[in-house]
Each structure stands twice: as structure tokens, then as C-alpha cells.
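Per reviewer request, we include the raw input and output of the structure prediction for the construct analysed in the revised manuscript.
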Amino acid sequence: MTAELVRGQNHPLSQARLEIRISAGTPIVAAAALSDENGRIHGVEWVAHPGAPTQPGLEVSRQAAADHRLAVDLDAVAETVHRVGVLLALPTGGTGPVRFGSVAAPFVAVTGLDGTEIASYTIHGLDAESAVVALELYRRQGAWKVRAVGQGYAGGLAELLTDQGLPQAQQLAGSINEAVAHGLARSVQAPPPRTAEGDRSRQAAAPALGPDQSGAAPQPGPVPPVSPYGGQSSGGPGQASPQPPSYPGATPDPSTVTQPSAPTAGGPIDYSHPRRQNAAPPPPPPTAPPAAPGQPAQPVAGDATGWSMEERLYNQVWGMFEDLARTTAAYRSAVDFAESRMDKELEQVLSDPRSRIGGQGDAAREAARARHAQLVDQAREALDRDLAQLQAEADVVEPALPPAYARWDNPVWHAYRVPMEIPMALRLGDLHVPEAERIRIPMLVRLPLERGLWIDSGRTASSDGSFTDAHSLGRLAMETAVAHAARLLAVYPAGEFTVHVIDPAGSGAQPLAPLVQTGVLAAPPALGAAGVTDVLTRLTQRVDLVQMAVRGGAADALPPGFDTAQQLLIVNDFPHGFDDRAVNQLRYLADEGPAFGVHLMMVADREESSAYGPLLDPLWRSLLRLTPVADDHLADPWVGHAWTYEPSLVPPGSQVLQQVLAQVAAARTKYA
């Protein structure tokens, strides 16, 4: 039975290997500090924090997050350690809350490795504090206990560490804040919040992104961490999700309806729907019979919250991404722990000359290996159980996805009709991890795109080395770009998305054929240096014009006949045909274009473009890197691993792309 502690109360611990699960309503920093019998921290090496996440017997999350899972092995801490403190702090230097009194009370639970809760504590009564000692695990007469502390500090981590006697308190607090800021800067947007009503009763709790290559969740994302849902998630498996969406409604309350506001000078246009509620909606009604006692609930497509089935499916995909990230991170952490414990035990055996040889030493080594195998088997059993549940959910979710979220081989495309509204998000591919090769998480990015795309045509994009021919890989990269562009055209209403192509050498003629032959391009692909100059000049002038209109508060004063559709520029064979002025225009479009309706998709080999040196670095960093083949480049700092990205390509021999584009072209003619 779980002991619900109040401040100052303690509870005995019967296990040495524990997990500390932390839940808060906002991203927080979690750390753990080792101290002596007087509560004194002797040095920075006694603190596990995002900049140094592992210490003997401790492992903490690598960045700020709303949920954390800390691993503790009390048998592995040094004999001089008498206390293990769990420290929480609000990140500094950002736009988030600066005191715990303005957020929900943090909840901390001590659990066994099987998830059984031993003791829990909700930290009430905080106000101006920005750092707090939540719990304390301490030795008492040879046994370990847990005590609810709840001691807050208005001066943040620096004051907290100083109070615990650390001489380098200021320096360590600064390095922790710097590590957290660095992690957030290279990560994708955090996964969306999971309301109590909409949660699908996962046992796993979140470690410290989400994915895109700069940091899954994590946008899939992935990841981020990347996570992987790109930088728009972004909220994986890339870019990236990026503000995360809320999850689904009741009768609208007039007080919660957001009214559109007119653009003001120097401010962004308010695109919020005039009837969209801001209040949290209730969960969807149950659509499946309750599971038998002791059996897992049967998965149902759209069982997350949301205002529509599309939004519920989007949030459900995000939930699947979170769950796969968490369970994989837990498995890897358990395996690492088992290996470190075995190494320690073997080291102890070898350190005693009497047990190096002979039956006693062999028995000790065999026992250490047996314990290692047992721990790994237990971790694998838990992982397989979670993966089976996720696979069952993926099997019902994938067929239910709308065209914007579906793979090209999904039958939903055969019933495709040009939509009347812009969807929430778009699928750019799939995300998976080596431990779960069969489970593919859709990598969804929010619309409109907030970052351009870079389709890497370099040989390094092939992680398995299957492509050694640069020409073949370049062609596949262009086919990938065409598939992404066709999907964008298909999910926008007729006439609300325009595609331009720059192909200076004409090398992309064959992959571009579906776009050219169906007539969905704004104009034939631009060829040569003159074509490059013409297209870039027109698009930069368009961005300048819209930018001036918006910033001047005259967004409705654009010239008659002005094309207000979103614009996509596909650039093939960069930097062929580009001079310095064209490169600067391209950088300008990458930086300023997305905010004013112009998006960039580059098909290029970065190594071939290295002749421009650091001039192009800001351009590469501003784009979301995708690959035409499976590649594990999407780093996910949310859980500290990489997601493998696979592009969403049209099946060989399929005519679905041409059929969809033909409907898009016909709808444009009808509504022109």
C-alpha cells in the first residue's frame, strides 16, 4: 500500500533499487545530491544533474521536462553517503514561471522497478521559491528510509546548494542552468500535455524530445526527443512539435470563445479560429467495452482528447511517441544499470587476491553474471509487454489516419477528395528505435510549416551504406521532395498552396514529372542562372511586401490579385547555378519566409556545398534535415537517444501520386 507522506513524515524502504517519479505542470529541472550524515555536499561530483546526469548509484534526466524518472541504487552509493536528496528547480532565463507558487504543486513518488508505488508526496505550500528539496533518502541504523522535506528556496539552486554546504554552489548552479538552456536550444518542442481524463493509463512515467536533428523528439519528431517531431512539434518523431497541442468537447461557453483581433503595427496576425474554445475539453466517450480484470485495455483509434477526430488522432500519435520514448529509455537505463552493477561486482572480486583464482572467485563471477542476466531479462520482459501494447495500438491507429497523417500505401488515399480546410499537421515520415523495429510512429509536423526542409542527397545519408552511387541517391532525394510537396498540395484547399521549382541543370526532370505533367506547379521548373535569379527575386519581393503590410498594420491592403496562398520553393542541385547574391536571397527566404507564407525545401549534398564555407551554416541550421533513406540522425535530448527516420515514399509502381495530383489540378481549375 502506498504511503502518502506529509512534510516531515518518513517511511521505511525495503528495496535498494528504486525510481523517483516526478510530475509537474510545467518543465522543471530535476537533480539528486549525495551528502554525509550532516547533510553536507562535499563537491560537485556529489550532484547528479542535467550537465552530469550519472553519479554512483544515481541517474537523472538530461534536461528540463514536465515529468521525470530518476534511477537510484542505494547499494551503489559510497559508504560515506548518508543522504540522497531529490532537488527540483524552475529553469532560468526563459519565459516560463519563476516561482513554484504560480504552478501546480509538484508530485513526487518513490517506486520499485516494477512500478509499485512505495511512498508519494505532493509538495504543497510553495510560493516565491524557485528551487526545492522534495524528498530525502537517508540511512538510519543500517536501513534506508524516505522523508518528505519540501524545503523551498527563493534564491534558486544557488541558495539551495549553498545551504547544503557546497563550496562551489554558485558555479554548479550556473553550469546546471547552462546545460538546461543548451538542451532546450537544440531540442524539439516538448510533447503535448496529457490530461488525466485523456491519458491511456500508461505505467511508464516521462524521463527528462522529443526529435529533430538539432535536438524528437522528438518532433516523430520523433524525438524530441527528438522529440523528433520537427521543430514545429514539432512533437515528433521530429520536428517537431513543436507549441504542443492540447488534447478533446462540451457545449461551448461564450466566455471561452476567442475573438479574432485585427493586425496591429509590428505585431503578428491572429489566426485563431473565432469559435475555437480555449477551455480544456472533456475526454471522448468510450468506444470499446471495458477490458476483463487483469487484462490490458483494448486500444481504440482516437481515444485521446481533442475537438475533432483529427485532433484526437494527432494527440494519440503524440502519446504513442511519448510511450515508446519512455519505455525504451527505461529499458536502456535498466540494461546500463545491470552492466555497471556487474562491473562493480567483478571489480570487487578481482580486488581481493584471495578470490582471483579458485572456486570462490569463479563462483562470485558466475553469480555476478547471473544477476546481470536476471536484471536484463526483467527489463526485456517489461519492454516486450509495453511494446506489445504499443503495437496493438499502432495496428488500430494507422488504418484510421486521415490523408494528411497517412502513409502513401494507406487505402484512405484511394478515397481522396480535395479538402475544404487546412489540417492540423502533416506526416513527413516514420520514426522508430532499434528495440522496436516493427513499431513505426508517424512523424507529424504542425501546419503551416514553421521551418524549411533540407532533403540530404549526400552519401552520408545512407546509414547502411546501401547507396554508393551518388546519382541514384540524388534521384531518390528528389523523389522524396516531390512526395512531400505532393502531400502538401493534397492537404491544402484548392488554390491555397503554390509550388515553385528551381532545377538549374535540369537533373530533376524525371522525378519532377508528376508535378509537371499534372500542371500543379505555378510555372515550369526554372533552369540556369537566369531562372534562379528570376524565381528568387520574385519570392523575396513577395516576402518584403507581406512583411511591410503586416508590420504596418495594413495586411488587407495588398495589391489586387495578390496570391495569398502559401508558397513552397523546391531547390534542386544546390549550389549549381547560385552566385553569392542568390545564396543570400536563399538565406533570407529560409529565415524570414515561413512567417510570411514562403517555405523552402532544398535537395542538396552539404559536402558538395562546403565550398561556400561558413556562409551557409546559418542556412543549414534553420532547416529540418530529412533523408531519402532510413537514417538515425534525429537526436532526442528528451530521453537521450536517437530516432531512426524513414521518409514517406510512394510504393514502387503505384499511381496514387498522379491520381491525387490530378484531383488537385482539377479542383484548381474548378475554383479558379
